[in-house]
TrEMBL record:
<feature type="domain" description="PUA">
    <location>
        <begin position="275"/>
        <end position="356"/>
    </location>
</feature>
<dbReference type="GO" id="GO:0005829">
    <property type="term" value="C:cytosol"/>
</dbReference>
<comment type="similarity">
    <text>Belongs to the glutamate 5-kinase family.</text>
</comment>
<keyword id="KW-0963">Cytoplasm</keyword>
<keyword id="KW-0641">Proline biosynthesis</keyword>
<keyword id="KW-0418">Kinase</keyword>
<feature type="binding site">
    <location>
        <begin position="167"/>
        <end position="168"/>
    </location>
    <ligand>
        <name>ATP</name>
    </ligand>
</feature>
<comment type="function">
    <text>Catalyzes the transfer of a phosphate group to glutamate to form L-glutamate 5-phosphate.</text>
</comment>
<dbReference type="InterPro" id="IPR011529">
    <property type="entry name" value="Glu_5kinase"/>
</dbReference>
<dbReference type="InterPro" id="IPR036393">
    <property type="entry name" value="AceGlu_kinase-like_sf"/>
</dbReference>
<protein>
    <recommendedName>
        <fullName>Glutamate 5-kinase</fullName>
        <ecNumber>2.7.2.11</ecNumber>
    </recommendedName>
</protein>
<dbReference type="InterPro" id="IPR001057">
    <property type="entry name" value="Glu/AcGlu_kinase"/>
</dbReference>
<dbReference type="InterPro" id="IPR041739">
    <property type="entry name" value="G5K_ProB"/>
</dbReference>
<feature type="binding site">
    <location>
        <position position="8"/>
    </location>
    <ligand>
        <name>ATP</name>
    </ligand>
</feature>
<dbReference type="GO" id="GO:0005524">
    <property type="term" value="F:ATP binding"/>
</dbReference>
<feature type="binding site">
    <location>
        <begin position="209"/>
        <end position="215"/>
    </location>
    <ligand>
        <name>ATP</name>
    </ligand>
</feature>
<dbReference type="Pfam" id="PF00696">
    <property type="entry name" value="AA_kinase"/>
</dbReference>
Length: 375
Protein backbone atom coordinates (compact mmCIF):
# COMPACT_ATOMS: atom_id res chain seq x y z
CA UNK A 1 0.00 0.00 0.00
CA UNK A 2 1.17 3.54 -0.73
CA UNK A 3 1.54 6.72 1.19
CA UNK A 4 -1.88 8.29 1.50
CA UNK A 5 -4.07 6.50 4.01
CA UNK A 6 -7.39 6.91 5.75
CA UNK A 7 -7.64 5.61 9.32
CA UNK A 8 -11.10 5.11 10.84
CA UNK A 9 -11.49 4.76 14.60
CA UNK A 10 -14.81 3.52 15.97
CA UNK A 11 -16.64 4.68 19.08
CA UNK A 12 -15.91 1.34 20.72
CA UNK A 13 -12.17 2.10 20.63
CA UNK A 14 -12.45 5.61 22.09
CA UNK A 15 -15.21 5.55 24.66
CA UNK A 16 -16.56 3.40 27.45
CA UNK A 17 -20.00 1.74 27.51
CA UNK A 18 -21.06 4.14 30.26
CA UNK A 19 -20.12 7.11 28.06
CA UNK A 20 -17.34 9.68 28.15
CA UNK A 21 -14.14 9.94 26.20
CA UNK A 22 -11.11 7.82 26.97
CA UNK A 23 -8.38 10.45 26.60
CA UNK A 24 -5.62 7.89 26.97
CA UNK A 25 -6.97 6.06 23.95
CA UNK A 26 -7.20 9.30 21.95
CA UNK A 27 -3.58 10.00 22.84
CA UNK A 28 -2.57 6.46 21.91
CA UNK A 29 -4.14 6.64 18.43
CA UNK A 30 -2.77 10.15 17.83
CA UNK A 31 0.72 8.83 18.65
CA UNK A 32 0.24 5.90 16.27
CA UNK A 33 -0.75 8.29 13.49
CA UNK A 34 2.07 10.71 14.34
CA UNK A 35 4.56 7.88 13.87
CA UNK A 36 3.36 7.30 10.31
CA UNK A 37 3.11 11.03 9.64
CA UNK A 38 6.76 11.42 10.65
CA UNK A 39 7.78 8.81 8.11
CA UNK A 40 6.09 10.68 5.28
CA UNK A 41 2.53 9.32 5.23
CA UNK A 42 -0.39 11.60 4.54
CA UNK A 43 -3.00 10.50 7.06
CA UNK A 44 -6.69 11.36 7.16
CA UNK A 45 -8.53 10.35 10.30
CA UNK A 46 -12.23 9.47 10.31
CA UNK A 47 -13.32 9.34 13.92
CA UNK A 48 -16.54 8.35 15.63
CA UNK A 49 -17.24 8.93 19.28
CA UNK A 50 -19.03 12.28 19.41
CA UNK A 51 -22.33 10.89 20.69
CA UNK A 52 -20.67 8.48 23.11
CA UNK A 53 -18.33 11.22 24.38
CA UNK A 54 -21.13 13.73 24.91
CA UNK A 55 -24.24 11.99 26.22
CA UNK A 56 -23.26 11.75 29.88
CA UNK A 57 -22.09 15.35 30.03
CA UNK A 58 -25.53 16.34 28.78
CA UNK A 59 -27.27 14.38 31.52
CA UNK A 60 -28.37 11.17 29.76
CA UNK A 61 -27.70 7.97 31.74
CA UNK A 62 -27.21 5.82 28.64
CA UNK A 63 -26.52 6.43 24.95
CA UNK A 64 -29.70 8.16 23.72
CA UNK A 65 -31.90 6.51 21.09
CA UNK A 66 -33.95 9.44 19.75
CA UNK A 67 -32.44 11.33 16.84
CA UNK A 68 -32.62 14.81 18.38
CA UNK A 69 -31.09 13.53 21.61
CA UNK A 70 -28.23 11.89 19.70
CA UNK A 71 -27.73 15.12 17.78
CA UNK A 72 -27.58 17.13 21.00
CA UNK A 73 -25.11 14.62 22.50
CA UNK A 74 -22.98 14.83 19.35
CA UNK A 75 -22.92 18.62 19.54
CA UNK A 76 -21.37 18.37 23.00
CA UNK A 77 -19.19 15.37 22.26
CA UNK A 78 -17.73 16.57 18.95
CA UNK A 79 -16.16 19.56 20.71
CA UNK A 80 -14.75 17.32 23.44
CA UNK A 81 -13.45 14.90 20.83
CA UNK A 82 -11.69 17.60 18.84
CA UNK A 83 -10.26 19.18 21.95
CA UNK A 84 -8.74 15.84 22.92
CA UNK A 85 -7.32 15.26 19.43
CA UNK A 86 -5.93 18.81 19.23
CA UNK A 87 -4.08 18.30 22.49
CA UNK A 88 -2.85 14.85 21.55
CA UNK A 89 -1.60 15.86 18.08
CA UNK A 90 -0.08 19.08 19.40
CA UNK A 91 2.21 16.96 21.53
CA UNK A 92 3.73 15.63 18.29
CA UNK A 93 3.77 19.05 16.62
CA UNK A 94 0.92 18.09 14.25
CA UNK A 95 -1.88 20.47 13.34
CA UNK A 96 -5.29 18.83 13.46
CA UNK A 97 -8.19 20.11 11.34
CA UNK A 98 -11.89 19.36 11.77
CA UNK A 99 -14.07 18.41 8.79
CA UNK A 100 -17.73 17.51 9.26
CA UNK A 101 -19.47 15.91 6.28
CA UNK A 102 -22.90 14.60 5.34
CA UNK A 103 -23.99 12.31 2.51
CA UNK A 104 -24.90 15.11 0.04
CA UNK A 105 -21.31 16.32 0.33
CA UNK A 106 -20.43 13.20 -1.66
CA UNK A 107 -23.45 12.98 -3.96
CA UNK A 108 -23.20 16.60 -5.12
CA UNK A 109 -20.21 16.89 -7.39
CA UNK A 110 -19.62 20.58 -6.63
CA UNK A 111 -19.63 19.99 -2.89
CA UNK A 112 -17.40 16.93 -3.13
CA UNK A 113 -14.93 18.91 -5.22
CA UNK A 114 -14.91 21.66 -2.58
CA UNK A 115 -14.28 19.12 0.16
CA UNK A 116 -11.47 17.55 -1.88
CA UNK A 117 -9.80 20.91 -2.45
CA UNK A 118 -9.87 21.71 1.25
CA UNK A 119 -8.51 18.29 2.18
CA UNK A 120 -5.74 18.52 -0.44
CA UNK A 121 -4.69 21.90 0.94
CA UNK A 122 -4.62 20.61 4.51
CA UNK A 123 -2.49 17.64 3.48
CA UNK A 124 -0.17 19.93 1.54
CA UNK A 125 0.32 21.90 4.76
CA UNK A 126 1.06 18.64 6.65
CA UNK A 127 -2.10 18.85 8.75
CA UNK A 128 -4.17 15.82 9.73
CA UNK A 129 -7.81 16.23 8.64
CA UNK A 130 -10.11 14.77 11.31
CA UNK A 131 -13.44 13.83 9.81
CA UNK A 132 -16.79 12.90 11.33
CA UNK A 133 -20.36 12.96 10.15
CA UNK A 134 -22.04 16.30 10.77
CA UNK A 135 -24.45 14.67 13.20
CA UNK A 136 -26.33 17.79 14.25
CA UNK A 137 -27.65 18.45 10.74
CA UNK A 138 -27.82 14.96 9.20
CA UNK A 139 -31.49 13.94 9.06
CA UNK A 140 -32.57 10.31 9.13
CA UNK A 141 -33.02 9.71 5.40
CA UNK A 142 -29.49 10.76 4.53
CA UNK A 143 -27.66 9.76 7.66
CA UNK A 144 -24.70 7.38 7.64
CA UNK A 145 -25.24 6.71 11.37
CA UNK A 146 -22.03 4.73 11.50
CA UNK A 147 -18.74 5.99 10.14
CA UNK A 148 -17.58 2.91 8.21
CA UNK A 149 -19.28 3.88 4.94
CA UNK A 150 -18.25 7.48 5.46
CA UNK A 151 -14.61 6.43 5.77
CA UNK A 152 -14.81 4.39 2.55
CA UNK A 153 -16.30 7.33 0.66
CA UNK A 154 -13.57 9.58 2.03
CA UNK A 155 -10.93 7.04 0.94
CA UNK A 156 -12.37 7.01 -2.58
CA UNK A 157 -12.69 10.78 -2.66
CA UNK A 158 -9.02 11.38 -1.86
CA UNK A 159 -7.86 8.34 -3.87
CA UNK A 160 -6.25 6.84 -0.79
CA UNK A 161 -3.75 4.02 -1.08
CA UNK A 162 -5.35 2.20 1.81
CA UNK A 163 -8.22 2.38 4.31
CA UNK A 164 -7.66 1.11 7.89
CA UNK A 165 -10.84 0.54 9.87
CA UNK A 166 -9.79 0.12 13.49
CA UNK A 167 -12.21 -1.51 15.87
CA UNK A 168 -12.33 -3.58 19.07
CA UNK A 169 -12.06 -6.91 17.21
CA UNK A 170 -8.91 -8.18 15.52
CA UNK A 171 -10.56 -8.77 12.16
CA UNK A 172 -13.57 -10.29 10.50
CA UNK A 173 -14.56 -13.73 11.80
CA UNK A 174 -16.82 -16.42 10.39
CA UNK A 175 -19.36 -15.29 13.00
CA UNK A 176 -19.53 -12.65 15.76
CA UNK A 177 -16.91 -13.95 18.24
CA UNK A 178 -19.01 -12.57 21.11
CA UNK A 179 -21.72 -15.04 20.18
CA UNK A 180 -19.94 -17.76 18.22
CA UNK A 181 -16.92 -18.80 20.33
CA UNK A 182 -15.39 -21.09 17.70
CA UNK A 183 -15.60 -18.50 14.92
CA UNK A 184 -12.41 -18.32 12.80
CA UNK A 185 -10.65 -15.17 11.68
CA UNK A 186 -10.52 -14.50 7.94
CA UNK A 187 -7.00 -13.35 7.03
CA UNK A 188 -7.74 -12.13 3.53
CA UNK A 189 -10.92 -11.46 1.59
CA UNK A 190 -10.88 -11.19 -2.20
CA UNK A 191 -14.60 -11.35 -2.96
CA UNK A 192 -17.59 -10.13 -0.99
CA UNK A 193 -19.80 -13.21 -1.08
CA UNK A 194 -23.37 -13.52 0.22
CA UNK A 195 -21.97 -15.91 2.81
CA UNK A 196 -19.70 -13.19 4.13
CA UNK A 197 -22.61 -10.79 4.54
CA UNK A 198 -24.39 -13.48 6.57
CA UNK A 199 -21.37 -14.00 8.82
CA UNK A 200 -21.15 -10.32 9.67
CA UNK A 201 -23.27 -9.29 12.61
CA UNK A 202 -24.25 -6.00 14.27
CA UNK A 203 -22.43 -3.86 16.82
CA UNK A 204 -20.57 -5.50 19.67
CA UNK A 205 -21.19 -2.91 22.37
CA UNK A 206 -23.75 -0.29 23.27
CA UNK A 207 -21.48 2.49 21.96
CA UNK A 208 -20.65 0.89 18.58
CA UNK A 209 -23.20 1.31 15.83
CA UNK A 210 -22.67 -0.54 12.58
CA UNK A 211 -20.90 -3.73 13.69
CA UNK A 212 -19.12 -5.89 11.15
CA UNK A 213 -22.01 -5.56 8.72
CA UNK A 214 -21.28 -1.90 8.06
CA UNK A 215 -17.57 -2.68 7.74
CA UNK A 216 -18.32 -5.16 4.95
CA UNK A 217 -20.45 -2.50 3.31
CA UNK A 218 -17.51 -0.10 3.62
CA UNK A 219 -15.32 -2.77 2.03
CA UNK A 220 -17.69 -2.92 -0.93
CA UNK A 221 -17.46 0.84 -1.46
CA UNK A 222 -13.67 0.96 -1.04
CA UNK A 223 -13.02 -2.09 -3.21
CA UNK A 224 -15.06 -0.58 -5.99
CA UNK A 225 -13.13 2.63 -5.66
CA UNK A 226 -9.90 0.63 -5.98
CA UNK A 227 -8.86 1.16 -2.34
CA UNK A 228 -7.52 -1.85 -0.38
CA UNK A 229 -8.82 -2.13 3.13
CA UNK A 230 -7.86 -3.46 6.56
CA UNK A 231 -10.30 -4.16 9.39
CA UNK A 232 -8.69 -4.95 12.70
CA UNK A 233 -7.36 -3.92 16.08
CA UNK A 234 -4.56 -1.54 16.96
CA UNK A 235 -3.82 -1.80 20.68
CA UNK A 236 -0.04 -1.72 21.17
CA UNK A 237 2.46 0.94 20.06
CA UNK A 238 3.57 0.14 16.51
CA UNK A 239 0.41 -1.83 15.65
CA UNK A 240 -0.80 0.76 13.14
CA UNK A 241 2.55 0.74 11.35
CA UNK A 242 2.32 -3.05 11.23
CA UNK A 243 -1.18 -2.88 9.82
CA UNK A 244 0.09 -0.53 7.12
CA UNK A 245 3.04 -2.82 6.45
CA UNK A 246 0.63 -5.70 5.81
CA UNK A 247 1.26 -7.66 9.01
CA UNK A 248 -1.46 -6.22 11.25
CA UNK A 249 -3.88 -7.96 13.60
CA UNK A 250 -6.85 -8.10 11.30
CA UNK A 251 -8.37 -8.91 7.94
CA UNK A 252 -7.15 -7.52 4.63
CA UNK A 253 -9.52 -6.93 1.72
CA UNK A 254 -8.16 -6.79 -1.83
CA UNK A 255 -9.22 -3.84 -3.96
CA UNK A 256 -11.34 -4.73 -6.94
CA UNK A 257 -9.18 -5.18 -10.03
CA UNK A 258 -11.84 -3.70 -12.23
CA UNK A 259 -12.17 -0.56 -10.17
CA UNK A 260 -14.20 2.19 -11.75
CA UNK A 261 -12.75 5.58 -12.56
CA UNK A 262 -13.52 8.19 -9.92
CA UNK A 263 -15.97 9.83 -12.32
CA UNK A 264 -17.83 6.58 -13.08
CA UNK A 265 -17.88 5.73 -9.40
CA UNK A 266 -19.55 9.04 -8.67
CA UNK A 267 -22.04 8.61 -11.52
CA UNK A 268 -22.94 5.05 -10.54
CA UNK A 269 -23.02 5.18 -6.78
CA UNK A 270 -23.10 8.70 -5.41
CA UNK A 271 -25.04 10.88 -7.82
CA UNK A 272 -28.77 11.57 -7.63
CA UNK A 273 -30.38 11.40 -11.12
CA UNK A 274 -32.24 14.58 -12.08
CA UNK A 275 -34.43 13.16 -14.85
CA UNK A 276 -34.77 10.45 -17.49
CA UNK A 277 -33.97 9.88 -21.12
CA UNK A 278 -36.10 7.30 -22.93
CA UNK A 279 -34.26 5.48 -25.73
CA UNK A 280 -35.16 3.06 -28.55
CA UNK A 281 -33.98 -0.54 -28.97
CA UNK A 282 -31.00 0.44 -31.15
CA UNK A 283 -29.64 2.82 -28.52
CA UNK A 284 -30.28 0.22 -25.79
CA UNK A 285 -28.13 -2.28 -27.68
CA UNK A 286 -25.41 0.31 -28.37
CA UNK A 287 -25.19 1.27 -24.69
CA UNK A 288 -25.46 -2.18 -23.12
CA UNK A 289 -23.69 -4.43 -25.60
CA UNK A 290 -21.40 -2.32 -27.73
CA UNK A 291 -19.89 0.15 -25.26
CA UNK A 292 -21.08 3.12 -27.32
CA UNK A 293 -22.05 6.65 -26.33
CA UNK A 294 -25.68 7.79 -26.51
CA UNK A 295 -26.49 9.87 -29.61
CA UNK A 296 -29.64 11.91 -30.36
CA UNK A 297 -30.72 9.43 -33.07
CA UNK A 298 -31.59 6.74 -30.50
CA UNK A 299 -33.56 9.00 -28.17
CA UNK A 300 -37.36 8.93 -27.96
CA UNK A 301 -37.87 11.68 -25.38
CA UNK A 302 -36.66 13.42 -22.22
CA UNK A 303 -38.58 13.32 -18.94
CA UNK A 304 -38.09 15.90 -16.19
CA UNK A 305 -36.20 19.16 -16.23
CA UNK A 306 -32.44 18.67 -16.19
CA UNK A 307 -29.40 20.63 -17.25
CA UNK A 308 -26.10 19.81 -18.96
CA UNK A 309 -23.63 18.20 -16.53
CA UNK A 310 -26.32 16.54 -14.42
CA UNK A 311 -26.82 12.80 -14.08
CA UNK A 312 -29.89 11.24 -15.67
CA UNK A 313 -31.33 7.75 -15.77
CA UNK A 314 -31.65 6.09 -19.15
CA UNK A 315 -34.69 3.83 -19.67
CA UNK A 316 -36.09 1.89 -22.63
CA UNK A 317 -39.62 2.30 -24.01
CA UNK A 318 -40.91 -0.28 -21.49
CA UNK A 319 -39.51 1.76 -18.63
CA UNK A 320 -36.66 -0.65 -17.80
CA UNK A 321 -33.71 1.23 -16.31
CA UNK A 322 -30.62 0.65 -18.44
CA UNK A 323 -28.15 2.75 -16.47
CA UNK A 324 -27.24 6.34 -15.80
CA UNK A 325 -24.82 8.90 -17.09
CA UNK A 326 -23.87 12.57 -17.30
CA UNK A 327 -25.98 14.36 -19.90
CA UNK A 328 -24.41 17.01 -22.12
CA UNK A 329 -27.82 18.23 -23.23
CA UNK A 330 -30.53 20.01 -21.26
CA UNK A 331 -33.97 18.33 -21.30
CA UNK A 332 -35.33 20.98 -23.68
CA UNK A 333 -32.43 20.43 -26.09
CA UNK A 334 -33.16 16.70 -26.20
CA UNK A 335 -36.81 17.45 -26.92
CA UNK A 336 -35.65 19.58 -29.86
CA UNK A 337 -33.42 16.91 -31.45
CA UNK A 338 -34.71 13.48 -30.31
CA UNK A 339 -34.46 10.99 -33.20
CA UNK A 340 -32.31 13.22 -35.43
CA UNK A 341 -28.88 12.37 -36.84
CA UNK A 342 -25.92 13.88 -34.98
CA UNK A 343 -25.22 16.19 -37.90
CA UNK A 344 -28.78 17.50 -37.98
CA UNK A 345 -28.86 17.87 -34.17
CA UNK A 346 -25.69 19.99 -34.13
CA UNK A 347 -27.24 22.32 -36.71
CA UNK A 348 -30.34 22.91 -34.61
CA UNK A 349 -28.96 23.44 -31.11
CA UNK A 350 -25.72 24.67 -29.63
CA UNK A 351 -24.01 21.84 -27.74
CA UNK A 352 -20.28 21.15 -27.40
CA UNK A 353 -20.51 17.67 -28.96
CA UNK A 354 -22.95 15.24 -30.51
CA UNK A 355 -22.85 12.62 -27.74
CA UNK A 356 -25.69 13.16 -25.30
CA UNK A 357 -24.02 10.81 -22.80
CA UNK A 358 -20.41 9.89 -23.40
CA UNK A 359 -19.51 6.25 -22.74
CA UNK A 360 -16.82 7.34 -20.23
CA UNK A 361 -19.55 8.96 -18.14
CA UNK A 362 -22.01 6.07 -18.32
CA UNK A 363 -22.59 3.23 -15.84
CA UNK A 364 -24.88 0.33 -16.81
CA UNK A 365 -27.54 -0.78 -14.33
CA UNK A 366 -26.17 -4.34 -14.10
CA UNK A 367 -23.09 -2.92 -12.38
CA UNK A 368 -25.13 -0.68 -10.09
CA UNK A 369 -27.46 -3.57 -9.18
CA UNK A 370 -24.64 -6.01 -8.58
CA UNK A 371 -23.08 -3.55 -6.18
CA UNK A 372 -26.25 -2.65 -4.33
CA UNK A 373 -27.83 -6.11 -4.15
CA UNK A 374 -26.52 -6.43 -0.61
CA UNK A 375 -27.85 -3.12 0.65
N1 LIG B 1 -18.28 -11.71 11.81
C1 LIG B 1 -17.81 -10.86 12.73
N2 LIG B 1 -16.47 -10.77 12.97
C2 LIG B 1 -15.99 -9.91 13.89
N3 LIG B 1 -16.77 -9.08 14.63
C3 LIG B 1 -18.12 -9.12 14.45
C4 LIG B 1 -18.69 -10.01 13.48
N4 LIG B 1 -20.03 -9.80 13.50
C5 LIG B 1 -20.29 -8.85 14.40
N5 LIG B 1 -19.15 -8.42 15.00
C6 LIG B 1 -19.11 -7.39 16.06
O1 LIG B 1 -18.70 -6.14 15.48
C7 LIG B 1 -18.14 -5.36 16.54
C8 LIG B 1 -17.36 -4.15 15.98
O2 LIG B 1 -18.26 -3.22 15.44
P1 LIG B 1 -18.79 -1.94 16.27
O3 LIG B 1 -19.30 -2.40 17.61
O4 LIG B 1 -19.73 -1.20 15.39
O5 LIG B 1 -17.46 -1.13 16.54
P2 LIG B 1 -16.89 0.29 16.05
O6 LIG B 1 -17.40 1.27 17.05
O7 LIG B 1 -15.42 0.07 16.14
O8 LIG B 1 -17.37 0.57 14.65
C9 LIG B 1 -17.30 -6.37 17.28
O9 LIG B 1 -17.08 -6.00 18.60
C10 LIG B 1 -18.10 -7.69 17.17
O10 LIG B 1 -18.82 -7.98 18.34
N1 LIG C 1 -20.92 10.20 14.03
C1 LIG C 1 -21.22 9.32 15.14
C2 LIG C 1 -20.79 7.92 14.80
C3 LIG C 1 -21.59 6.89 15.51
C4 LIG C 1 -20.87 5.52 15.70
O1 LIG C 1 -20.99 4.95 16.76
O2 LIG C 1 -20.10 5.02 14.69
P1 LIG C 1 -19.15 3.70 14.74
O3 LIG C 1 -18.38 3.69 16.00
O4 LIG C 1 -18.30 3.91 13.55
O5 LIG C 1 -20.02 2.48 14.60
C5 LIG C 1 -20.46 9.81 16.40
O6 LIG C 1 -19.42 10.47 16.26
O7 LIG C 1 -20.92 9.54 17.49
Amino acid sequence: MGKRIVVKIGSSSLTAEEGGLNRLQVRFFADEIARLHASGYQVLLVTSGAIAAGFRRLGYATRPKLVHEKQAAAAVGQALLMQAYQEAFNASGITAAQILLTRPDFSNRGRSQNATRTIEELLKQFAVPIINENDTVAVDEIKFGENDSLSALVANLVKADGLYILTDMDGVYTGDPRKVPDAKRLERIEVLSDELYQMAGGAGSSVGTGGMRSKIEAARIAMQGGVPLFVGRVSEPGDLAEAVAGTGKGTYFASSLQSLSAKKHWVGFLSVPQGRIVVDAGAENALLNRGRSLLPAGILRAEGDFHPGEVVEVVNADGRILGRGVTHYAAWQITAVAGLSSEEALKRIEVPRAEVIHRDEWVGSSLIKEASSHE
